[in-house]
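# step 3/5: fold
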Amino acid sequence: MKDLFILVLSIVSVIQVFSQELTSRVKDSLYKEDQFYIGTTYNLLGKRPEDLRQTSFSLGFHLGFIKDMPITKRRNVAIGVGLGYSTNSYIQNLLIQREDVSGDFNFSVIDANTVNFTKNKFSEHVIELPIEFRWRTSTVSSYKFWRVYVGMKLGYVFTNRSKFEGSLGTFIHQNIPNYTTFQYGPTLSVGYNTWNIFAYYGVNSIFSDTTLLNGVPLDSNAVKIGLLFYIL
């Protein structure tokens, strides 16, 4: 986690220096802002059933391109539409097992009194479509400005995976059919210059039409909070 965060900061620093050099040389009255983004988030499980908890830091990594389309003469208000990639992990105590005969998947909360584990997580890889309404204090000659971007992210999960290592053995499952393929939710990005606080709230559940073995619905959704870096 620490190494990935340092890598993200290093990439952002190098590209930001290049962007500043470019901005200082070229003043375009039809300028556009924040065409690329890269970031990292802390992933939370919302709407958790009783006893379901996260056991460690769950990380998300995000990058992509957004087409900036200013809608005012000053060009400080714009619409952004783009394409991105995201990978997310959730480290928790949800046991996902596949039945040998039917092939169906069972979901249950791990009883810490009877089952020990060293690793238990599920993860996803997502193609995303971000749509944003953008307000900023930018000018043609400045790359340092305040921004408030609100919008929506639509996501297509093209692969998912779960892995358990513990006293029950090792279970690895690829492309669990209960996983929700299409995910979506509102986003908010607020910040100054390169640094921005980013938040996403998943409207639909990570798993669709799924219940635990005790009959409790598994309606957990994704909540992501972290840092997003916009680059020219």
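# step 4/5: annotate
Residues 17-25 have pLDDT under 50 and may be disordered.
# step 5/5: archive (pending)
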